[in-house]
Design brief:
Number of strands: 13
Largest sheet: 5 strands, mixed
Strand content: 15-25%
Radius of gyration: 28 Å
Number of helices: 11
Distance between the termini: 92 Å
CATH superfamily of the largest domain: Periplasmic binding protein-like II
Strand order of the largest sheet: 5-1-6-13-7
CATH class of the largest domain: Alpha Beta
Structural class: alpha/beta
């Protein structure tokens, strides 16, 4: 009997010990989960602080996209978006550093961490909103069609069977492809694409394509430099749009701060001053 009681006490002790261990493990697991959640919350809250500590941000752009970001004859990077970015980050206490990228790889460059934002006449679209977050719009734009006077082509209908060029992976390309009835009439049933808008316009001037579809802001600047009498811009267009700055979806606080800086620039006249310098008037969207 005594041995039986002893055995029962030993078994009870073992069961209690196991229960205690299980409870301790559950508590530790819960603590770890809370720590992970706190860590994730801290990262989200502090995404802006990483830029403040580093002291600079990397702006991705196509450095052939005049007048938004382009090179002067001596290689200096200038442009409306370049000056807007410099002014915005000066207000935020940081330096803007610029990284030329292939426009077709822009979202990949952003989400891989090679750049911190896309700021270069970047059109806000539903497709892009799935990949990045945008600031509030700061410029309006539309997709225009440009031909040469000697072709006699002035309407979309007259481009049937003709070659039309645009920049690869651009909003111009998207606009063409959305106009299914139009694109189906083109030579080959698809636009000819180039890595830059400049290449597309060079092919137009050389007579290798009959038309170019491009952002109105870029097209009018290009035409202004070359001579308005040398080009025809259709009254028809392929859609209206807005420009914004694209940032990673995880950089929520950074986006809020950048929107604040842009709002301040619109209010204090900084944005208007930059706009007048490049466009001759204030076209910034308020």
């Amino acid at each position: 009997m005594k041995k039986l009681m002893t055995l029962i006490m030993i078994l009870a002790l073992i069961i209690a010990t196991l229960a205690g261990c299980t409870k301790s493990t559950e508590v530790e697991a819960a603590s770890d989960s809370k720590a992970d959640a706190d860590s994730m919350e801290t990262v989200e809250q502090n995404d802006f602080e990483k830029f403040i500590e580093r002291g600079y941000v990397v702006v991705g752009l196509d450095d052939t996209f005049a007048p938004m970001g382009f090179r002067t004859t001596d290689g200096e990077l200038v442009g409306f978006d370049v000056e807007m970015a410099k002014a915005a980050f000066e207000k935020m206490g940081m330096e803007a550093r610029f990284q030329p990228i292939e426009w077709s790889m822009k979202e990949t460059e952003l989400n891989s961490g090679n750049i911190d934002m896309i700021w270069n006449g970047y059109t806000i679209t539903d497709q892009r909103l799935e990949k990045v977050n945008f600031t509030k719009p700061y410029l309006k734009n539309r997709q225009v069609i440009v031909t040469l006077p000697e072709t006699g082509i002035t309407t979309l209908a007259e481009l049937e069977g003709k070659s039309v060029a645009c920049q690869n992976e651009s909003s111009s390309y998207d606009a063409i492809m959305k106009a299914e009835a139009f694109v189906s009439t083109l030579d080959g049933g698809t636009p000819i694409t180039f890595e830059t808008n400049n290449e597309a316009f060079m092919d137009l001037e050389a007579g290798r394509v009959e038309a170019v579809v491009a952002d109105e802001i870029l097209a009018m600047y290009y035409i202004g430099q070359k001579g308005v009498e040398n080009f025809v811009v259709f009254e028809e267009d392929l859609g209206k749009e807005e420009y914004g700055v694209g940032v990673r979806k995880s950089d929520t606080v950074f986006l809020e701060k950048l929107n604040g800086a842009l709002g301040e620039m619109k209010s204090d006249g900084t944005a208007a001053e930059i706009s007048i310098k490049y466009f001759g008037k204030d076209i910034v969207e308020k």
